[in-house]
Amino acid sequence: MSGQDFKDFIVVITGASTGLGRAIAVETADRGARAVIINYARSHEEAEETARQVTAKGALAVLVQGDVAIDADCRRIAGAAAPFGRIDALFNNAGTTKFAPNHGDLDAVNAEDFQNLYAVNVVGAFQMVRAARTLLEAAPSAGAVVNTSSIAGVTGIGSSVPYAASKGALTTMTLSLARALAPKIRVNAICPGFIDTPWFGKGLPEERVAKMREGSAASTPLKAASTAEDIAGAAVFLASPASRHVTGETLLVDAGSHLGMATLSMR
Ligand code: NAD
Predict the structure, then answer these.
(1) What CATH number was assigned to the domain covering residues 10-254?
(2) How far apart are the first and last CA of the chain?
(3) Which end of the chain is least crowded, N or C, by CB within 10 Å?
């Protein structure tokens, strides 16, 4: 709990029915947001659960189904904030992947996989910013965009080559948009490492996920397998007044896993 630094904020979060998106929704509500617009792609039931948790914190929850790969949907998602006259914070959190963890198997992915992942992870975020631009510019202090990128985009690890490449592109786009949209809009990104969310269940058997969880807890410098709640605070920081002079920044939030040369340490 960080006081009421989101007091009266109008917040839009894509991919907010589960995982990190839900945790961001609850955190912004907890910090005083007036309305949280919860985008979800498929599961209305899970989005309802996010809405229930947001409402319990005293914020208004607005559910909007939509696929961020479709521009018209992005306009509808951003448009849900129009009755409030502004967007203080847009979290581009929706993301997708194809699991092909053996990056050396070049036949495991194809051009269509690249296009599908880019359509959501890169173009989706771009379309959301474009759709939300006028409302972000109407925020009393600079409207904040926070992109959920990934350590995959920094180090090239992750569920597949197209996934890592798409997150690298999202991180670069964060820089372009931060420069182009200043001074009225700030654009930043977080790069999480492992987060224990439904994400991996879509592509990996539970034993593999359990191994990743144990591996993170054993091998990250902070000896932690991050939960969505562990990461949400960093995302919310980049939309908060505390980061009002931060734009074009990429914040690694990975329990230190990018320091991965620890075994070569001379201590
Ligand atoms: P998650 O599966 O719980 O959340 C992803 C959400 O995105 C889902 O609710 C899904 O329905 C939604 N989504 C997918 N495609 C969409 C589309 N076209 N339009 C709208 N919504 C769509 O997993 P998560 O871990 O909470 O993932 C959230 C973000 O964090 C993603 O961008 C992911 O790439 C990123 N990330 C996750 C991890 C991890 O270890 N879980 C690590 C680094 C980055």
Answers:
(1) 3.40.50.720
(2) 37
(3) C
